[in-house]
Write a structure and sequence with these properties.
D-Maltodextrin-Binding Protein, domain 2, four-stranded mixed β-sheet, alpha/beta, single chain, 12% strand
């Protein structure tokens, strides 16, 4: 067990290298232009002691006695407990977060407040926008969906984090993969890392029913992953041999037992990362360049279409994001599928907690065996942090120090509790799944094209229409998109350059 815990903690550390551009995709883009290769992963930290020895660089005399720091965050599933806890309920994660916040207040002599805003994914963004346009500093620190917030990087809403002396974004408690993808030119306006449990909860993974696998007499999927053989083709083959028409409906239905349960919309997005299809890369000056390999993406789309519609899969097509995940989780927990595509947070739901059959967790499949790494996609609703403008440089320095301490204390206390206590004791069933989490964390890939997708004609969402249309139209769609993306990139770069030339 000690070995398992050490492996897990090493994985946690590696997660903050978040392989924004793990081993490639530097080199040539489809049009032949040269791009800078991204940095490799940081070396793994191998023991509990290494985590315990991580310190922050904040001066011990730093104090902001009497100040109030106002957060604004989402009141939504799997994120409402990240920044603050409304009421202590005995939950180990909530206890850890409450203690973290108390330590933050004591450390700096400050009072923390958090305005949790309910509504759609743009509710927090809209509140921040309204405050900025009114010239008000209503909020200090924004903790919101990256998807709906980062699109305003060029609008001046956020302070340039690169200017802060007390915020060390190179530290292991900040996501280096996110830094690589989100930074632009000489600036960076959002950050994420250990302070965001959503960063972990929203990783897309494959759950599989171990009891059903045993009935097939197939090789353990843990062994398949370790051998580098877990591909879309492998999942297709499993699905084609596993189907039971339980309700005699003659068509695949929710009452049947199938090879895969998944969904459309965001459940198609993971194949960008898992099949190594980068959208954007960085040039030598840290600006964005279009990098979609149409041939590789086309191959990916054809395989996903076959997996979804010709391999005994049940595909959920209606309901909101939470409803879809609940339906997939419920069917999987009832033993209706060999595999299921879900976010890791599904393990926290009552469905999988009450599951009778044993399950395992593995990465989403690769494109083929020639692909050496497993890459993990993050749902675009993970939380990123920004400092709201207008704000004085002096106050921004204070807020940077608060963010630094928040990330460090989350890294050393909250995250280990989440993994070592919550996930291990409540949700995960075996040490083999813990070993798989190592691969999943190591493979997290953050693509700038996903972060900035709303600026780029929502390019990362296009495969959703290709797959649901059941016809590979990749070449025609992305031929048209390339021009639009490059045009939008040019406008975005111009707005950011203007900001940076003005000192922000």
């Amino acid at each position: 067990m000690k070995k398992i815990i050490c492996m897990l903690l090493a994985a946690i550390m590696l997660a903050f290298s978040l392989a924004s551009c793990a081993k490639d995709p530097g080199g040539q883009t489809p049009d032949g232009t040269t791009t800078a290769a991204p940095d490799a992963l940081d070396p793994p930290l191998q023991s509990v002691q290494r985590i315990e020895s991580v310190t922050n660089g904040l001066p011990p005399e730093l104090s902001y006695k009497g100040e109030t720091v106002a957060f604004v965050s989402r009141d939504a599933d799997f994120v409402r407990d990240e920044v603050s806890i409304d009421e202590e309920d005995g939950d180990v994660i909530h206890t850890a977060i409450a203690r973290r916040n108390s330590l933050m207040e004591d450390r700096f002599g400050i009072t923390l407040t958090n305005n949790k805003i309910a509504g759609d994914q743009y509710a927090v963004r809209n509140a921040v926008k309204q405050s900025f346009e009114a010239g008000l500093h209503t909020y200090d620190i924004i903790a919101n969906s990256c998807y709906s917030t980062i699109i305003h990087t060029g609008d001046g809403y956020f302070y340039n984090l690169k200017k802060l002396t007390h915020l060390d974004l190179t530290a292991p408690y900040w996501s280096q993969g996110f830094n690589s993808a989100a930074s632009i030119g000489a600036g960076q306006y959002m950050c994420t890392g250990a302070a965001s449990l959503a960063l972990y909860r929203l990783m897309f993974v494959t759950f599989f029913n171990r009891d059903l696998m045993n009935t097939l007499g197939e090789e353990s999927l843990f062994d398949v992953v370790n051998a580098g053989k877990w591909t879309i083709d492998y999942q297709i083959r499993l699905g084609k041999q596993y189907y039971s028409d339980n309700d005699a409906s003659t068509t695949i239905s929710s009452g049947d037992t199938v090879g895969l349960i998944s969904s459309t919309v965001s459940y198609i997005d993971p194949y960008w990362s898992s099949c190594k299809n980068p959208i954007l890369v960085k040039d030598a000056d840290n600006w964005l360049e279009y990098a979609v390999d149409v041939d590789r993406l086309s191959t990916t789309m054809r395989k996903v279409i076959e997996l979804f519609y010709d391999a005994n899969s049940y595909i959920v097509t209606s309901g909101g994001d939470t409803a879809r995940q609940n339906e997939i989780s419920s069917m999987f927990a009832e033993g209706h599928a060999l595999t299921a595509t879900l976010r890791l947070c599904a393990a926290e739901t009552e469905f999988l907690r009450d599951m009778t059959d044993k399950y395992g967790v593995i990465p989403c499949p690769k494109l083929d065996e020639e692909q050496t790494e497993y890459q993990t996609f993050l749902h675009d609703q993970f939380t990123a942090f920004a400092i709201a403008r207008p704000v004085t440089d002096e106050r921004a320095e204070m807020l940077g120090a608060v963010l630094e301490y928040m990330a460090w204390s989350s890294y050393t206390t909250v995250v280990p509790v989440y993994y070592n206590v919550a996930l291990k004791s409540k949700y995960m069933q075996d040490s083999a799944s813990w070993d798989m989490l190592d691969k999943i964390y190591n493979g997290i890939y953050i693509d700038a094209g996903v972060l900035y997708t709303k600026i780029l004609s929502s390019v990362h969402q296009v495969p959703r229409t290709i797959v649901t249309g059941k016809t590979d139209t990749t070449a025609s769609k992305f031929k048209t998109l390339k021009t639009a993306v490059n045009m939008n990139l040019s406008k975005f770069h111009a707005s950011v350059k203007k900001l940076q030339e003005s000192g922000n």
